Amino acid sequence: VVAELLRIKYRIAWPLFGKTILDINNWEAKFGIEKILGVESGEVMKPNESPLTHMPFIYLKNWCKKNAPDGPAIIINLLPLIWEENDNNYKIDKLSFKLLQDFGNYKKVQDALSIRIFSFFSWGSREPYYRRRINVLNDLNKSLKDISLKNCIDSIIINLDKEALKAKIEHEEFEANIK
Fold first, then answer.
1. Tell me: the pLDDT tens digits for 30-62?
2. Which of 32, 125, 25, 39 is nearest to 75 (CA)?
3. Alpha helix segments (H runs only) across the chain
């Protein structure tokens, strides 16, 4: 329903949604709107697109410009960032990519990227999840021009690599029944 509303009536619906997600004083409404617009983080299959993908990008981009840096940072927090295209083939979400290209120079957007990258559901060892993210971020970094965003992603990759190594050791100790 929300996706269809944003596709057909975005000029009416989005100003209300957008105003609400920016309003830090009305956290109940903000949380509710973010819940219906967002996609859970983690290894997300492609059909779970955010309702935001149904709104014309230019409209969302203009809203982000008008409300930067908070607006694009909030939107990044609502998107999955990484999709599972198919088995062992992970890609950056297209809307996330566009927003990072246009607004990735903002520190708040970079912080939102880091939060989304490190926040995910997992089963078993977290190492493969970290490694997938490293691969996607390496590919993303090749297509970016903004130096501050590239540096942010390099830093995230370093931290992901540390977490992957730690997760691997923890999993090996668990498998060997070492505490």
1. 999 988 888 765 545 555 678 999 999 999 999
2. 39
3. 2-8, 10-22, 27-37, 57-66, 70-78, 94-103, 107-118, 127-142, 147-175
